[in-house]
């Protein structure tokens, strides 16, 4: 077998045992790896509660990991989300996926619950469950530093251990993932960390063609203004988007009541570079180096964190943004949801938060102090509890990220229909509507957006299953990666066939959500976006979204996706996709 290891590790913490098994090769081809295989193995458990010992946490990488395939080696983590009740998944960079393949596994399935706080340590074929009660409450950075000689790490922090519904998992000390609250699923299993380290090589079918394919992709990367330009992600990280989104008047400001932040120049990427002179960092063998780290080792905030801890809550102090980002990473708490919940709190209480209040509330959330106990439930539950449900800017219970949907209608539709709640990444139409990649389209219309959203979801599901960085697709396409896939695995699948696998993977996720009662009533946006302007200027107006047009686009999306009028899966489409 080329590419895949052909071996999956299954660990039961209740019984303190593990086994390995070999999946049917046809399953590997149909679901590829990463997100696809995670969803395939999650499906039979999806109706269990997230804290049921039988609910698995799945960590899978793809067939391209641990080869010279460019920008590969991502890890998909999946379970049922405590925050939303939907499937919860995240594709995370770092070294975990590569080390997993070096240890000889395509993925790990973890079930059960330990009777004491524990860690899982994997070194090639040696698997140990280690009792670590002394690590209870330990910050993620300290835990990761203690474990760094054991390979790549995935750890949870005190936010998970204290029940914060939007707690996450920190990989390799400074990479945050799993904003659906999947850190809490690990905590429910009494699992503090996972380490993995290996020495094995992954067999490649045609190394020469792989190197040629790699060169083609690198040429496209270096020619991409978005990735490699003087204002691109390589130079500034994702913070490069800050001024662009604000200038397009779609920066979520004051809890999405406005879409323009007049103080953006104080907190934008050039300001960060001037003040901190960060060094480049990134995943192993990455040429983009999108992570930026201050010389003291503190990670700079990503765009969404930078935006939400400034514009969304009306904060103009950079130091507070840096401190809030660091606190969220150290405690294992999703920064997007944390800031959104604070914005909800601020609106309900008609109170502008000072720098000290922002940090104090984050601390209160982590350690369930006072109002923090309720804020840790997320914006939707908190706002409902306070009698102001309209102040929670969420879809399916998950807080929206840093693109106001009134400024890009493809983004509006993609937020609404995303299988994991208010997520900008499932379709990532920002590429079309703002970055003009792969083609430029009118951002203020729903015309054609149903098909674009559906096709983008299929593409990104395939990308997450190959376990490749999504940024690369601002420059390369699935055509290039179909060639890489063939060079690695020896299996000829066209770009269209790989994207069809993505369609199968995404439809499987819709099926899982449907089994838990999600339908068209959940594929919707907060009323604020239909009832109020985001910006009224002489140059541009960000108008309320026309609800009738939105509902028509959603109906068209259901048709394109092969769902019924209620957004529910149908047997005919499932059969066509081999589900």
Give the arrangement of secondary structure elements.
Blueprint: E1 8-12, E2 17-21, H1 25-31, H2 34-42, E3 57-60, E4 75-80, E5 87-92, H3 96-102, E6 107-111, E7 118-123, E8 126-131, H4 140-147, E9 152-155, H5 158-161, E10 169-171, E11 175-177, H6 182-188, E12 191-197, H7 207-222, H8 225-228, H9 233-236, H10 241-247, H11 269-276, E13 279-281, E14 291-293, H12 303-308, H13 318-331, H14 335-348, H15 355-366, H16 372-375, H17 379-385, E15 394-395, E16 398-399, H18 409-417, H19 430-433, H20 449-466, H21 478-489, H22 495-515, H23 528-531, E17 535-536, E18 541-542, H24 547-561, H25 571-576
Parallel strand pairs: 1-6, 7-12
Antiparallel strand pairs: 1-2, 3-4, 3-6, 4-5, 7-8, 9-10, 9-12, 10-11, 13-14, 15-16, 17-18
Helix pairs in contact: 1-2, 2-20, 2-22, 7-21, 13-15, 14-17, 18-20, 20-22, 20-24, 21-22
Question: TL;DR?
Answer:
The protein is of the alpha+beta class and 579 residues long.
Number of helices: 25
Question: How much of the sequence is in beta strands?
Answer: 5-15%
Largest sheet properties: 6 strands, mixed
Stretches with pLDDT under 50, minimum 5 residues: none
Number of strands: 18
Rounded to an integer in angstroms, the radius of gyration calculated over CA atoms is: 22 Å
Helix content: 25-40%
């Amino acid at each position: 077998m080329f590419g895949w290891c052909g071996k999956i590790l299954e660990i039961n913490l209740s019984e303190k045992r593990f086994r390995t098994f070999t999946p049917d090769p046809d399953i590997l081809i149909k679901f590829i790896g990463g997100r696809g295989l995670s969803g395939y193995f999650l499906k039979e458990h999806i109706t269990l509660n997230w804290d049921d010992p039988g609910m698995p946490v799945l960590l899978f990488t793809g067939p391209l990991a641990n080869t010279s395939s460019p920008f590969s080696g991502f890890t998909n983590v999946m379970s049922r989300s405590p925050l939303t009740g939907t499937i919860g998944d995240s594709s995370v960079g770092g070294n975990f996926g590569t080390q997993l393949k070096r240890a000889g596994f395509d993925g790990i399935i973890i079930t059960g619950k330990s009777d004491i706080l524990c860690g899982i340590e994997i070194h090639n074929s040696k698997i140990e469950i280690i009792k670590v009660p002394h690590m209870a409450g330990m910050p993620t950075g300290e835990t990761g530093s203690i474990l760094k000689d054991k390979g790549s790490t995935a750890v949870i922090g005190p936010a998970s251990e204290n029940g914060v519904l939007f707690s996450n998992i920190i990989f390799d000390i400074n990479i945050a993932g799993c904003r659906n609250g999947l850190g809490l699923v690990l905590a429910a299993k009494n699992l503090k960390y996972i380490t993995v380290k290996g020495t094995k090589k992954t067999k490649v079918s045609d190394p020469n063609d792989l190197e040629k394919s790699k060169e083609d992709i690198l040429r496209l990367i270096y020619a991409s203004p978005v990735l490699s330009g003087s204002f691109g992600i390589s130079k500034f990280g994702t913070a490069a988007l800050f001024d662009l989104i604000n200038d397009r008047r779609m920066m979520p400001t004051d809890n999405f009541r406005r879409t323009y932040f007049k103080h953006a120049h104080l907190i934008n990427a050039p300001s960060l570079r001037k003040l901190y002179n960060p060094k480049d960092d990134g995943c192993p063998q990455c040429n983009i180096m999108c992570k930026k780290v201050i010389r003291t080792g503190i990670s700079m905030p990503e765009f969404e964190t930078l935006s939400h801890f400034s514009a969304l809550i009306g904060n103009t102090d950079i130091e507070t943004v840096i401190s809030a980002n660091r606190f969220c990473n150290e405690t294992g708490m999703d920064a997007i949801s944390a800031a959104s919940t604070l914005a909800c709190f601020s609106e309900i209480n008609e109170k502008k938060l000072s720098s000290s209040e922002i940090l104090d509330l984050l601390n209160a959330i982590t350690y369930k102090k006072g109002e923090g106990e309720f804020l840790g439930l997320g914006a939707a539950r908190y706002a409902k509890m306070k009698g102001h449900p309209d102040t929670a800017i969420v879809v399916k219970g998950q807080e929206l990220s840093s693109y106001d949907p009134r400024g890009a209608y493809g983004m509006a539709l993609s937020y609404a229909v995303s299988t994991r709640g208010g997520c900008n990444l499932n379709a990532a139409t920002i590429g079309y509507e703002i970055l003009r990649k792969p083609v430029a389209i009118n951002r203020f219309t729903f015309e054609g957006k149903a098909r674009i959203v559906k096709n983008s979801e299929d593409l990104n599901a395939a990308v997450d299953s190959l376990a490749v960085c999504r940024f690369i697709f601002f420059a390369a396409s699935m055509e290039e990666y179909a060639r890489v896939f063939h060079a690695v695995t020896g299996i000829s699948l066209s770009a269209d066939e790989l994207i069809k696998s993505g369609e199968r993977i995404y439809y499987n996720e819709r099926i899982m959500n449907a089994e838990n009662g999600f339908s068209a009533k959940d594929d919707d946006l907060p009323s604020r976006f239909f009832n109020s302007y985001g910006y009224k200027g002489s140059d541009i107006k960000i108008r309320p979204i026309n609800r009738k047009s939105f509902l028509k686009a959603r109906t068209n999306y259901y048709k394109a996706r092969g769902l019924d009028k209620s957004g529910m899966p149908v047997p005919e489409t499932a059969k066509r996709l081999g589900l």
